[in-house]
């Protein structure tokens, strides 16, 4: 018997949709959303199996499985039946594989949702994964990889992973290619389809989260979800337990110089930090990214922009894992900025030192909390497909009452947590990546999967101390209070006005 939870969801004041938590007998957890005003329906399934679960020597198997599930099912054996149905009824569909999860999602005209959801459910009940589709989908995965070879985003991400602990899954190549899914398995005498079927056994209902967004009532959609998704097998698989930080001491205090495909100079300063997700109600990384990424007078960016050294600056930490995270400061440099790279790095550390010296301020936390509250409670209504894909990730990370808000509303002022992260942003723990074609002819290494040329130099705390000393002398200081940030968003009681019209 499915259990419909009576959850008091924390939700935006402007949100008129209805919500219900549903736990199916097979342990598949669902969030049902009813929106009477929508003309589109959408659904997203997140499976707690990603590329970190790839077997050794079968890099990209999780991504390959993602592709294969679109092919056909026992109930709908027609090739690409699901994709055709969605596109013929005003919809779209896609999927992505991340480190710890794989997400499948679609939207469709509201009147066609029931049949679309039935086809979607078969991904997780009885997909065919027939032999004739295997080679074709390996080619599709390889085609993606070849496209990524020309993407500096993919190239630099893989380079960062390559320069990590070899015994951590973060180090692995994750998207797959012809080499990893066809050539090498054949050399080892492996049948890739059998390996795929074996890997699919990890897809257990207890590792799944489903969000559905419909026009109909909650009772109506609950009945449909129960009838379809109760057939998903629960083999009681254990969720993937990621090791902690992927960077050990040998991977820190480094300056990595890499050659990109596209012209342009980029600088990224990173530190492994305690994951913000562990302290999402305190929001220490959010506090620090607000200050380090600030653009007003006295900020890092204001100074380097005035000097003509950078065109933008972004600071913050990722939040997709409970076990590891990186806080990064990234910027697009001008030619002059490239020549002053050491000065810019020194300035960043100078500002971090200022934050330590000046201490943590409750008024800054309160101001940021007010901004976050305004953004959350008066956010624009997003498209259903965007809403289901963003909400489903919260189901894995937060308790049910916080699924809709996630980490958007830090509410506990905890200076000790902020100082803890601040202490982690040290010269001893830093890793710096600089991308520029100006490094051509001076690199001596190549990353094996994307063949990105790079070189490595050690960066000691003493060197950073020297860079701090020769950094720009323009004064760094914290932002002043913003008088335009609202302090009270509660609705006030106003007596009704009665208008009297004179009749002629």
UniProtKB/TrEMBL annotation:
Protein's UniProt name: Insulin-degrading enzyme
Keywords annotated in UniProt: Hydrolase, Metal-binding, Metalloprotease, Protease, Zinc
Record-stated family: Belongs to the peptidase M16 family.
Peptidase M16 C-terminal domain mapped to chain residues: 195-368
Domain Peptidase M16 N-terminal: 31-164
Species whose genome carries this gene: Aegilops tauschii subsp. strangulata (Goatgrass)
MF (Gene Ontology): metal ion binding; metalloendopeptidase activity
Membrane spanning residue stretches: none
Gene Ontology annotations for the cellular component aspect, listed alphabetically: cytosol; mitochondrion
Boundaries of every Peptidase M16 middle/third domain copy: 376-493
One GO biological process term: proteolysis involved in protein catabolic process
One family name in Pfam for this protein: Peptidase_M16
């Amino acid at each position: 018997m499915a259990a419909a939870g009576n959850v008091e969801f924390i939700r935006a004041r402007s949100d008129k949709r209805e919500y219900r938590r549903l736990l199916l007998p097979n342990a598949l957890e669902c969030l049902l959303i009813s929106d009477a005003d929508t003309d589109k329906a959408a659904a997203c399934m997140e499976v707690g199996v990603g590329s970190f679960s790839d077997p050794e020597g079968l890099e990209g198997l999780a991504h390959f499985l993602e592709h294969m599930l679109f092919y056909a099912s026992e109930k709908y054996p027609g090739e690409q039946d699901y994709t055709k149905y969605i596109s013929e009824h005003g919809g779209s569909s896609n999927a992505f594989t991340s480190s710890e999860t794989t997400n499948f999602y679609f939207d469709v005209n509201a009147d066609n949702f029931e049949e679309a959801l039935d086809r979607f459910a078969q991904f997780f009940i009885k997909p065919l994964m027939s032999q004739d589709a295997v080679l074709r989908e390996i080619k599709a995965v390889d085609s993606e990889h070849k496209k990524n070879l020309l993407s500096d985003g993919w190239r630099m991400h893989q380079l960062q992973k390559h320069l990590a602990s070899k015994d951590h899954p973060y180090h692995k190549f994750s998207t797959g290619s012809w080499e990893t899914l066809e050539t090498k398995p054949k050399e080892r005498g492996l049948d890739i389809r059998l390996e795929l079927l074996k890997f699919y056994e990890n897809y257990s209902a207890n590792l799944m989260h489903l969000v559905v967004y419909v026009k109909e009532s909650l009772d109506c959609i609950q009945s449909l979800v129960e009838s379809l998704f109760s057939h998903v097998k629960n083999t009681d698989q254990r969720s993937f337990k990621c090791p902690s930080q992927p960077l050990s001491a040998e991977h820190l205090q480094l300056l990595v110089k890499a050659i990109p495909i596209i012209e342009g100079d980029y600088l990224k300063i990173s530190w492994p930090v305690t994951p913000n997700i562990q302290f999402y109600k305190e929001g220490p990384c959010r506090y620090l990214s607000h200050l380090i990424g600030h653009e007003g007078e006295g900020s890092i960016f204001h100074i380097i922009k005035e000097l003509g050294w950078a065109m933008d600056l972004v600071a913050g930490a990722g939040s997709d894992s409970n076990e590891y995270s990186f806080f990064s400061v990234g910027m697009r440099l001008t030619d002059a900025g490239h020549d002053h790279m050491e000065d810019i790095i020194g300035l960043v550390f100078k500002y971090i030192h200022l934050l330590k010296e000046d201490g943590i301020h409750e008024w800054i936390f309160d101001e940021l909390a007010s901004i976050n509250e305004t953004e959350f409670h008066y956010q624009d209504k997003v498209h259903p497909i965007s809403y289901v894909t963003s909400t489903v990730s919260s189901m894995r990370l937060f308790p049910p009452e916080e699924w809709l808000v996630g980490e958007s509303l830090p509410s506990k002022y905890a200076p000790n947590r902020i100082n803890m992260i601040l202490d982690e942003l040290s010269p001893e723990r830093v890793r710096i990546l600089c991308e520029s074609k100006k490094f051509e002819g001076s690199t001596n290494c190549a990353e094996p999967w994307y063949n990105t040329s790079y070189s490595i130099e050690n960066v000691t705390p003493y060197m950073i101390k020297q860079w701090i000393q020769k950094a720009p002398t323009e004064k760094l200081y914290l932002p002043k209070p913003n008088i335009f940030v609202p302090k009270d968003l509660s609705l006030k009681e106003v007596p009704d006005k009665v208008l009297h019209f004179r009749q002629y």
